[in-house]
Specification:
Blueprint: H1 3-32, H2 36-60, H3 69-92, H4 98-105, H5 107-116, H6 122-139, H7 149-176, H8 179-200, H9 210-232, H10 237-244, H11 247-259, H12 265-284
Helix pairs in contact: 1-9, 1-11, 2-3, 2-8, 2-9, 3-7, 3-8, 4-7, 4-11, 5-7, 5-12, 6-12, 8-9, 10-12, 11-12
């Protein structure tokens, strides 16, 4: 294999992994809603993280490689933010369409990109993002005409956690590689599982929910977080952020395809504004302006 082909594969492979991760996580979120009537959103979050942590621990066996004491602080923040992000997003999509919830949640990564750059042009991207956010909050749901305040607040809270996930996930992945995903999801499960057990009770242990719960764990956690952890350590932050900017649109499409959550033209326009703002901010960010994911030799 020639050097050029190897170089092309090295550039394209992380991009493909990230796209697969985004489609997987939004498809899993759509499937997870079928668990809500039985075990609730909290229970669905808990069983998803429990099963995903078992799978990732079995695959990566992180105990084989010692973790430096200095790395545990980053891993713990990464894991807790991951768990809280999942918990809050599932609370949000109980009452808010998936596409709108993901768009609101995406204000977290967008904020990371904005604060990483110091260019005047960023004021334009901030204005676009604020306009899109305001449109979503004011227009609400196409079906009801209003947006549930609790669901919207949870989605925005998930955005804060997503920002922490990006910042600390990059650091954890740079030091510990893919095993960070296994450790992070396990920490998330330890934090969130007790809440799910209290909320759902014995229903969380029912074998009837196991097939769907396994599918959700694989689609929404095991596959995407592993692929994201690998991808973010193999591409610069601007490239990673630009691709992640597609997440709200992918979430909206999954909501239409799997949940029949049709959005109006203005709502699609609002999501488009947030996507464009994120892409613009990310492309305007120079490597030294923020955290850049290291590229292995």
């Amino acid at each position: 294999m020639s050097v050029e082909i190897r170089g092309l594969i090295a550039r394209v492979w992380p991009v493909a992994m990230l796209i697969v991760a985004m489609v997987s996580i939004q498809s899993g979120a759509s499937l997870a809603q079928s668990l809500f009537p039985t075990i609730g959103a909290t229970g669905a979050t808990s069983i998803r993280l429990i099963l995903a942590s078992i799978m990732l621990l079995a695959v990566f066996r992180p105990w084989r490689r010692p973790i430096a004491k200095s790395a545990w602080k980053t891993l713990i923040v990464y894991g807790v933010s991951l768990g809280a992000m999942n918990f809050l997003l599932y609370q949000a999509i109980q009452t808010v369409p998936l596409g709108i919830a993901v768009a609101l949640e995406f204000t977290g990564p967008l904020a990371v990109a904005v604060f990483s750059s110091r260019r005047r042009l960023d004021l334009l991207w901030v204005a676009l993002a604020v306009a899109g956010l305001a449109m979503l909050l004011l227009l609400g749901d196409e079906a009801s005409g209003t947006l549930d305040p609790y669901g919207a607040a949870c989605a925005l809270g998930a955005g804060v956690c997503w920002a922490l996930y990006i910042l600390f996930g990059q650091k954890a992945g740079a030091v510990n590689g893919a095993q960070s995903a296994a450790l992070g999801v396990t920490i998330a499960a330890i934090v969130i599982a007790p809440i799910g057990l209290i909320d759902a009770g014995a229903a969380l242990l029912s074998l009837d929910i196991l097939p769907i719960a396994l599918a959700v764990a694989i689609l929404s956690t095991a596959i995407p977080y592993t692929l994201e952890m690998i991808a973010m350590s193999r591409m610069p932050t601007p490239v990673f952020g630009t691709l992640m900017s597609l997440e709200p649109a992918i979430g909206a499409l999954c909501g239409v395809i799997f949940l029949s959550q049709h959005l109006g033209h203005l709502q699609w326009s609002a999501i488009a504004l947030i996507v464009v703002a994120s892409i613009g901010t990310t492309l305007a960010t120079r490597p030294h302006d923020g955290i850049e994911a290291p590229v292995p030799d």
